[in-house]
Amino acid sequence: MTNVSIFLQATPAAPADWVLFFGRFHPLIVHLPIGFLLIAGLLELDRLTRRNTVSPHTITLILFWSAVSATMACVFGYMLSQEGGYDAEALSSHQWQGIAVAVFAWLAWAVKSENLGRLIPFAQLIYLPALAVALVMLLAAGHQGGNLTHGSDFLTQYAPESVRTMAGLPAKQNEFKAEPITDVNQALVYQQIVNPILQTRCVQCHNADKSKAGLRLDSPDMIRKGSEDGPVFVAGKGTASQLVKVCLLPEEDDHHMPPKGKTQLTEGQVALLTWWIDQGASFDKKVADLTTNDAIRPVLAALGGESAGTNGSAVATTGRNTGSPAPESAVLTMKLPAVDPKVVDELKKTGLLVLPLSKEQNQLEVSAVNARTFNDAQAALLPKLSQQLVWLKLGDTEISDASLAAVAKLKNLQKLHLERTGVTDAGLKQLKGLTNLEYLNLYGTAVTDAGLAELAGIKSLKKVYLWQTKATAQGIDNLKKAMPSLEIVGGIDEKAVAEFAKANAADSKTETDKKN
C-alpha cells in the first residue's frame, strides 16, 4: 500500500527548506502505523476467534507505538503538503482520514492500557470499536494517499470487469494508446508525436489529480496555462522553454524532470519536444506543415519507419500514396518478376507488412513497423523476395548482424532501415555486395568508425543516417573524403546536450541571485 498522507494545503508563502526536508520522510514514517495497527488487529482477532492468550501488555505496547507513529505521520504529512500540487478536495479528505487514524489509535491504547478505565466506567466497551475504526480509517487514508500520488484509478486501473461489476465501479476506460503513424508527413505533431511523449513520461505527476508545481500536461489547454511559475514553453524558442530546460538538466539536479528514478526521456524525445516548440508549439498542425532540419529528420523518420527527406519542410514519403517512387534510381524503374503469393503470406505470418511500391513493376516494400519482435531466425525468409524487395524497414526489431547475411542477398535493395537494432560494424561488412543500395539508416546503433570504413565500399550509397551512433567526427570526415557525394546526416550529440544543461544551470543561478 503506497501512501502519501498529506494533510493541509500548501500555504502561499514558500515553506522553509527544513520543512520540505522532513516532509520527504513521510512515505517512510507512514508505513509504521500501518504495520503496528494491522498486527494489533490480527492479534485481537486471533484472541477472539481461537481464544488464544495474548499478553495485554504486548498489545498495549503495539497500540502505543501505532498511535505515536500515526501522529508523526500526520506531522510529516503536513510538512510534505507544503510542496503543493495536490488536488484540494482529495487532500482535505486524506487529511481528516489520517487524523482519525491517530485519534482512534490513541483511544484504543488508552482503553487497553486501562488509563481511560480509571476515569470512565465501562470504557472497555469502546476498545474494539475504536480499534476497528482506526483500521477502517487506515485503509481509507492509504487509498486516498495512493490516489494523490498515482491518480484516482491507481488501485482499480487493471481490475477485471467481474471485479469492477461487483464493486460497482464504472467500466474500464481505455488506456492511452498512441495513434500509429503510417505516413509521418501526415502525422499530427501534437496528437501523434508530442502527446504520447507527455503521456508516458510526464502526465503521471502532472494530471487532474496531481499537478506538481501547479502544472498539468494532460491537455492542450492545461499545457498553455503553464505552472504556478508561468508558461512552460516559449513558442519559437525550444531550448529557452522550461519544458525542455528541465529535461536537459543533470539527472542529479533537484529540478531535473522526470525525477531521478523515473523513466527518462530519450535524446530523440527531447529533440522532438524542442523542434515542436521551435516551430511554434502548434496543437493542430501536421509534420508536413512545419520545417525540418538534418537533426530532426531521422528522428521523425524512425517514428513511422519513413525515410527522411531533404526538402527542408517534411519527411519524404514512401510513394505508396503519391504514385511511383522517384525515377532517378535505376532500380525503381525496373520491371521485376511477379512475386509468389505463398512467399508473401509466409512473411506476413511473422508480422511483417508486405506492400507494393509499384504493382506494374512488382516492386515491394517490407516493413517491420508492427513486428518489433522480428528476429534473426525470421530474417532467413527475406531472400525469398531477393528480386522484388526494394525497400526494407527493420528498425526497432530484435535483429543483429546475423540477419544482414540474409539482407545481403537482396540484390535490388535500394533503401535499408536498421535504426535502433543490434547491428554492428561486423554486420556492415556483409552489405558490400548491394550494388543498388542508396539509402541506409543506422540511427541509434553501435556502429563505429570501423563500420563507416566498410560503407566506403558501397559505391551506390547516396545517404546515410548516423545520429546517436558511436561514430566520431574523424570517422565521418574520413567517409566524406572517401565518398564526397555521400550525404551524411547526424544530429544532437551528448556535447550539445551538456552545453544546454550548462546554460540552464547558469540561467537558474542568475534567477536565484535575482530573487535573493
UniProtKB/TrEMBL annotation:
The chain crosses the membrane at residues 25-45, 57-81, 93-110, 122-142. Keywords: Membrane, Transmembrane, Transmembrane helix. The keyword Ubl conjugation does not apply. InterPro entries: Cyt_c_Planctomycete-type, DUF2231_TM, LRR_dom_sf. Residues 25-149 form the DUF2231 domain. Residues 308-324 have a biased composition (Polar residues). Residues 307-328 are annotated as: Disordered. Residues 202-261 form the Cytochrome C Planctomycete-type domain. The keyword Translocase does not apply. Gene3D superfamilies: Ribonuclease Inhibitor. PANTHER family: CYCLOINULO-OLIGOSACCHARIDE FRUCTANOTRANSFERASE-RELATED, F-BOX DOMAIN-CONTAINING PROTEIN. This is Ribonuclease inhibitor. It comes from Spirosoma terrae.
